[in-house]
């Protein structure tokens, strides 16, 4: 844990804190149908035209049900649109490689993945997707799913800020304004900044380069029919293959990376994602990318404070998130810096810690930081292999996912997820001050508790339920007798279990990063992961919107000395406690069977 | 008097409570409490497990026993709370059994019937020395009534037909005279009967916060059920077979059994505490609402001030000594029978003026105070002070008197008069013939200790509003002296109602106390309306609480009890959830140790073996319920502080304490279990 790491961490937090207020103030304008920005001269006519085309009345606000239906309808149409293109790509233009239709289960998985802001990728883009599929079917969701998340957060905050009304805003207006005024302009600037760092932005064909040092790799031996040849032990026979050439991908990368990070989408342009030299060329580009992951989510806490006229509350929520972020980042960094105990036992002093699966350019600190941030938020972009993190280092991302990604979180999703915990914290501790619990002057009653708990229940049910199902399925555990691995997992023991748990946690939390090691592109995993992503996004959002609708209708109780304080140090501690006790404890037994056991076994020299 | 609470574990209550704990195992009753219902099902499955298991039968049997204890302890907590509440109510009710009543039948003759046969609308005659058979209103006559049976106050009170003192309560005794009473309730519907039904489990309705909390606890239970159910397949993946009893043990430890088991006891105990303060609540909702009160309406007279104004100062005119003024004021007040007049005589004594009797001055002609003349005084005929005409009264009346005597207005005196009025006092001018001698200052006397109580209310975030018929000037002064936050001057009954509505529209919860029929609409409108027992039946029906002591400052205690109820619930919920951390650390390593001995360092408590660890956690989980019964019944200590301070304190005690205590407790139990070689 070198000083440079500490310095970078400090710089990161300070810069993040500094951009929170300006971002929040800008969000105030963007998320107000009558808000004014300096982009109005250019974008206002476009905005009006869009409403006219969509038949939307901008001044017509919706109640929580209308808002939710609009959101669900939009997402459904978007999902079906993508599904259709993927299934029909062989009939559509821009398919020079002549790829066939994407299989039904993979198309379902992919369409859902992008609609839900997950960007879980069970496919390899360059060998599955036509240009049309990539550029239209998928990219559209990078904007739409991010805008949807921010819109929902805005509706929930309005529910808190307003009183005795049913109206929470207009989904279509929020969607359009967030896309036009927030995502597009920032992405434009951000992409240029990334290009300045050496990120590519072109339409050239892939480049082929001769390797300076040709190398040999082991591949499965195939017979004439292209089938894997299996030996007497049932395992595939390996043969040596010489590699002399390297294919270097090209394309409009900077523009894609900008929205991938800013919208916490995380779907990589290249398979190596942010570890690729083109996709993350310099330390500055790395810094800007992790900053952009938190930028909007952090600004939304300021928006919360502004809207509810309790800026201190906004900062308290922000502080809680940052404490959790720092705890995770430090834990992950510490675990990675400590390295692999087996190396220590062998007398190898790995001064750099655990470098397996890490990009040498980023090293321990920036890899650990990136892994923490990408799972704090629902980004899912990676600059190191999470599967190769040490057991405890890898538990940090997993833990972050289990909290429902409320540490800054996915754009919008992080805030509304955290607000569920706030409502629960206020309810439980609010009783302790001797009044019916009040959150910013709104009484928290049985309906609100029901909705808040329902969303937590769905999170736990989906992650734990699907993981349990996978464990019982033929794609789960290795054969008890032979210990032969199944079609699903590539690792045995606790590590294999972590891979399954991580996959469903990532899907439900709409993260999209993978622990890898899991053969996701099978009908079973495509379908169940797809369902997990759907439940994790939409089943969670409905009770939260109902909660917002209920809060909006309540009378405002004026504050007094007896009012429960939702600001300051005590509240931050309380919220931390609630997130950890109510959010995280549910997953402790599962974590015990995964990374925790693995950690202790690794210390004894066992690997998986 | 407040009824002495029975000691926490009174034998007369504990005995039946133990029987009740078993009776409450009826699943139809258990289902209303999801947490304990799940525990009971778990206990049942574990019991079955004793017989179906192939190994570890002794261990499973121990688990089963302690799981049943967990359920029984929770039932016991509820039963004890009910028992105490019932004992409290029965003590009040005991008086009214076997009373005979003289019912007035058609034709005017009376017939003797059992009090239990009286119906609403019946008219009964009660004579001196008899017990009033049922709640009702006096419709004819007046009597002194001994209400000590319900209020503990030994001084008899007067009950008379008409007006605001017509209500009588069954069980009280008429001491003198004869009254005719119209019975106002049917048997079983009296306030006491309603109160008793509130503390009896079967008929008890959950309050809004209790419902919300039950939902939270039920949802947590479902989540933990899921955690434990999915652990089975996870275990299979790792090649471990978790036995059902062990998973049930984990489940019961994780679900919030502590608060789940004590929740209803806390609610009942809240009612019980009110009863100890001689307050009958008509619903649990009202008790809870008391904790939420933002605004307190208090009548000035009788609540904030002693009943009447009193003379506090003599301010002589120039050239007049204080003693001279006091002497004249006393003479002028001898015939003034009003409390104000008497207070002048009392004050004069302090200036060495001997108290004189009217009889001592046979030649004097006393003029009594009347509302029309607004002055009293004395005219001397023969003997001492011949021709003196002394008057004391309202400044206007005296000025007129002086002018009539040929004197003129003394501006220095009139300045004093204005000063006093501005200061919230009432000035009385004393004149001797054509000469104004000075001014007597009458003041409302604010009851002792109120300033501190209002300050306490303010730290609790509660606004106090004084209601008075006085003019705004007087009201301002009294409000400042008593330390109330606001006042409503020159208030008419309908103003009170309007004020309550206005505050409620602003989102505030309003509490008030009242007695008169014209208070009824306001009592009904207020979120917490406390009717005084001496008040009219209409007032009692309109309110949601009745104060048997008819003590207007009781509202403050009621609010504190309401707050204490909510605080106790919140604190024990926090404690219960925080407990889970230690239980995880006890049970999870125990479950994994068999397959992964490497996990031993996770056994931070150093528990003896997997079986002792699991059993110790389950035992702790059961015993903590018993250990917390006294706290649940007594309530968490409430000291009036700001919300932030209370939160900090309780978060430290019940949050941090809730994390730490079970580590210690489970370790201790493990040592005992190991020493006894139980498993």
Write a concise keyword list for the protein shown above.
heterodimer, A: 608 residues, mainly alpha, two-stranded antiparallel ribbon, 19 helices, 4 strands, 59% helix, 5% strand, globular, B: 679 residues, seven-stranded mixed beta sheet, six-stranded antiparallel beta sheet, elongated
The biggest chain-chain interface is: A-B, 71 and 75 residues
- SSE succession of chain A: HHHHHHHEEHHHHHHHEEHHHHH
Shape type of chain B: elongated
Calculate the terminal CA-CA distance of chain B, rounded to whole Å: 54 Å
Roughly what is the average pLDDT of chain B, rounded to an integer?
84
For this structure, the quaternary state is heterodimer
Class per helix and strand makeup of chain B: alpha+beta
Shape of chain A: globular
What is the count of DSSP helices of chain B, taking H or I runs of 4+ residues? 23
Write up what this structure looks like.
The complex is a heterodimer of chains A (608) and B (679). Chain A is mainly alpha-helical and 608 residues long. Chain A has a domain at 207-248. Chain A contains 19 helices and 4 strands. In chain A, the strands form 2 sheets. A two-stranded antiparallel sheet of chain A has the order 1-2. Chain A has a two-stranded antiparallel ribbon with strand order 3-4. In chain B, α20 packs across α23 (643-676). The model of chain B has no long low-confidence stretch (mean pLDDT 84). Classes of the chains: A mainly alpha (608), B alpha+beta (679). Chains A and B meet through α14, α15, α16, α18 and α19 of A and α7, α20, α21 and α23 of B.
